[in-house]
Amino acid sequence: MRNKGACFDVSLRASVCAAALFISSAAYAQSAPSPVTDTDEVVVITGSRVVRDGYEAPTPVSVVSRQEIERSATPNIADYVNTLPAVSGSSTPITTATNVGQGRQGVNSLNLRGIGDVRTLTLLDGRRVGGVINTGVVDVSELPQQLISRVDVVTGGASASYGSDALSGVVNFVLDTKFTGLKGEISGGETTYGDNKSWKASLSYGAGFAGGRGHFLLSGEASAEDGIITNTRAWNRTGWAFINNPAYRAGNGQPQVLRLPQVALSTATLGGTIACSATSACSSLRGISFGPGGTQYNLVFGPIVSDPIMAGGTFADNAIRDKSTSLTPKQNRQNLFTRVSYDVADDWNVFAEGSWSHLETYSEIFRGNLTNTLTLRADNAYLPAAIASRITALGLTSVPFGTMKGDNPVTGGLGKHKSFRGVGGIDGKFGLFGTEWKLSGYYEYARSTLSNTSTNSTLLPNFMLAIDAVRAPNGSIVCRSTLTNPTNGCVPYNLIGTGVNSQAAIAYVTGNPNQRSIFKQNVVSVNIAGEPFDLWAGPVSIAFGAEHRTESASGTADALTQANPGNWDSTGGQPAVGSYKVSDAYLETVIPLARDMWWARSLNLNAAARAVKYENGTFATWKLGAEYMPIEGLRIRGVASRDVREANLADRFAGIFQSQSSFSDPNNNGAAATARQLNSGNPNLDPEIGRTYSAGVVVRPGFLPGFNASIDYYKVSIKGAIGSLSTQQIVNLCFAGNQSACALITRTPGATNQYDIANQPLNLASERTRGLDLEASYRFKMSDILPDMGGTVTIRGLATHYISYKVDPGLPGSIITERVGATGLPDWRYSMSISYDNGPVSFSGTARGVSAGVVNNNFIECQSSCPTSTANNPTYSDISIAAATYFDMAVNYKFGAERQYEMFFNVRNVANKDPAIVPNGPTGNPYRSPAIDQTQYDVLGRVFRLGFRFKV
C-alpha cells in the first residue's frame, strides 16, 4: 500500500506538472496566488490598506519575488515587470526613442491592462513617488533596484484604498529596509549582433547601530547602454509599408490600400527631387534627382506609385536604410538611495530616506523630410541651367521639390532627467479602547528636472529664406531676401545634391531647440489601522487616513519655440506651467461574517470609501468586495469599485509641442497629405470616473502542497475618459461635417499639401474594457518524482486574455474603436516559466508571447470584391499581424563557503526571433519610425548578459 500511495502521489504531481505546462503554454496571466518564496519568512501581501493575519483581499494581487527578478538578470527591473501579461503597453526606452517633444525618452513607466500608465499608481513601500515628466508617471528605473525584495501588482480599481490615479491598479515596490551586510553586482551584455553593449554596477550596505535600535542603508547604482542609434536589423530593410492603391476607384472591388515591400519615397531623395505629379504641367521633369556634388540622375519609379511614396523602383537608393530612426536610445543612469531609521521607543520608529537619480539619453529620429512641399524657382542660382531652361520653356516660374536634407546632420533627441526625493516618517503602535492600533505617517518632497533638446532641428523660417538663392548683381550667390535686406544675415543653402553646403549654410538652417522643466510633488499622509471590536466570526478591522498632495510644473523653452513651435521641424517642446492640489480622506473596513462554519471556512466583507477634493469639486470613490472560502483550499472573491482620476499637469497645462504626422485625405479620394500636429493641454478638463468589477476563484488544494491557481474576470468602464484624437480621426470628423473638428485644421503657411492640426485632450464619452487574468504556480521537490534526484522545481504560468476594449469618442461623426486584437493590445499575453534549483546551481527557462492580431479593427481586409472604402472603414489588402513566442533562459551558480558569491548568465530571445512587421503608411515617409509594435514584440533580437553578485 505504501508503494501504491507513493506511485499515486508521483503520478499526480507529474500530471499536474504536465497540465500546468500545457495550460501555461496556451495562456497565462497575473491574478493572485501567493508567491513561491525561498525562505520560511511570512510575507504579508494585501490589495487593501487593511493588514491582518490570514486575510486576503478580494482584489487580485500578483507578486514578483526577488529571486524571479534576479533570475531574469535584466538590466532594469522594469524590463522584467513588463513581461507580466497584465502589464501591457508600458513606456520604455525602446517605445519612447523618438518621443522628443515630451521628454519621455528613456522613461520606464508601467501600464496595467493597457488602460494607460497615467492610470497606474506606482508606489515605493506604499508611499507615493514623484513623477519625472509632465504626466506625473514614475520612472521605475530611478528606484533602488538592489534593495527591492518583491513587487506587488494590484490589478483593478484601487482609488478608494490607495488614492487618486489608481484607476487601473497599483504597482508597489517593496524594499528590504532591514538589509544588513554588503552586497554588490556587476554585469554586462550585448545583442547577438554585437550592438547595444551595456553594463551595470550596484553596491548596497546595511548596518544596525545604537544596539540595534537604529538601522542605516545606502545603495547606489550606475549603468549605461550604447543604444542602437541606426536600425540595421534585416527586418527593417524589407521596406514593408502600406501604400494607397492608385488603381482604386469607388465600387471597382479593389482595396484602397495595399500592403507591399520595398516602399520608399517617390518625391524626395537625400539630394533632392523635382516632385511634379504625373498629371501636372511639369510632368516631363518628374523624378529628376540630384546626388553627390549635384550629380543629376533620374529616379526610377516602381510599378506602384502613390505620391509621396512608391513600391519598388530605386528603393535601395532612397529608403534611407542606414539612416533610419534609432531602435533603442543611448543612455546612462546613476541612482543613489539612503535610509536611516531609529526606534525612539519600543513601538515607535522614525525614519528618513533620500534618493537621487540622473538619466541622460540620446536617440536619432532621421532628418525629417520635406517630401513635396518646397517650391524651387527657375532662377535658383544652384539649379543647373538646362533644368532652369526646361522649366521656363514650360511657361512655369517654379516646380515643386522634395528633399530629405542629406547635408544636414541627423536630428536627435537629447534628454536629461534629474530627480530628488526626500521622505520623513513615523511608524508606531498605540493602545486605544483596549486594543492595539498602528499608525504610519510621512511627508514626501520630490523634485524632478528635465532638459530636453531636439538636436540639429531645421529652423524652417531660415530654411525657407536660404533655399531661395539667387545671383546678386555682382554675380555672387545670395538669398533673395538679402537683395532687399542686406543685413538679414541669410546664408544661401543649396538644395541641389549632397556634399554641396558649407558649415555656415548648415548652421544657418539648423539649431537645437530645447525645453527645461521642473516638476514638484509634496505629499503629507497619515494612516491608522486597528481592530476595535470583535464579532461572532472574529475581529473587525478598520483603516482610515488622510492625504494632501500638491503637484506643480514650471519651465522655459528657447525663444523661437516659445514664439511659435512651428518655427522648427522638430522641437524640444514647450513646458507645462501650472499646479493643482488634491486632498482626500478614506475609511476601509474588513468585517468577518463567518468562520469555521459547516458552509464556510471564512467569509469576509471588504468595504472602503474615500472623499477626494480637487480644485473643481469633491468626488467620492468606493470599493465593496467579499472573499469566501467554502472549503479549505478554495477561495471565491469579487469586488466592485468606483474610481476617479484628476487630469494631470500634461493634460491641463502642457505647452504646445509639435509632431509630424500624415493622413489620407477623404476630400481627395484618400490621397496622402502631411500635417504638423500641434498638441497642448486643456485646462477645462473634468476628472474621469471609472467603474471596476472583478470576480474570481483561487485554488490551493491541500492534497497538492505547493500548487496555486487563480482565474479572475474583470470589467472596467471609464466615463469622461481623458484622451486625444489622432490626426486621421480629426480629419475624418471634419469630413463627416463636425465643424468643431474642422476648426482645428488650417493649411501650413507657405506650404502645399500640408496642414497644421491643433489637438488638445478631451473628456471623451467612454472607454470600456473586460478580460480574464489567469495564474498558476507549482513548486515541488524532484525527489518526490525521482527519489535519487535532488533539487526543487518551480513552475509558474501567467496570462491575460483581453476580451474587449472599446473607445467611444462620443462626438458626432465619430465611431467606436475596438482596441483588442489590434496594434498595441493583443487578445492574449502570456508568460510561462520553469526553474530548477539544486544546491549551488539553478536553471530557468521562460516562454512569453502575444497572440496574432490586426493593424486596426476598423479596417476591412479584402483582396477582391471589396466594399466601397470609407474614411472610417477603409479597405486594405492585408492587415494581419503575426503572433510571437519568445524563449529566455538563465543559469546561476553560487559558490563560496556560504555561497555568498554568484555567477549568472542570461539569454533573452534565445531563438533570435524577429518582431512582427506592423507596416507604416499609407501616407508620409514609411521610414520615419520602425515598422514594428515596440510595446508588444521583442525588437532587439537575442541578448546575452553575464554577471557576478556577492553578499557578505
Structural class comes to mainly beta
Q: List the total number of helices.
A: 13
Question: Main beta sheet: strand number and arrangement?
Answer: 22 strands, antiparallel, barrel
Distance between the termini: 49 Å
Helix content: 10-25%
Task: Explain how this protein is built.
By secondary structure, the chain is mainly β. It folds into two domains: 61-231 and 328-364 and 414-454 and 515-951, Maltoporin, Chain A, CATH 2.40.170.20; 267-300 and 370-403 and 460-504, no CATH class. The protein is 10% helix and 46% strand. The protein contains 13 helices and 52 strands. The chain has a 22-stranded antiparallel barrel. It has a five-stranded mixed β-sheet with strand order 1-4-5-2-3. β29 (578-595) and β30 form a beta hairpin. The two termini are 49 Å apart. The model is unreliable at 1-45 (pLDDT under 50).
List keywords for this structure.
952 residues, disordered N terminus, Maltoporin, Chain A, signal, 13 helices, elongated
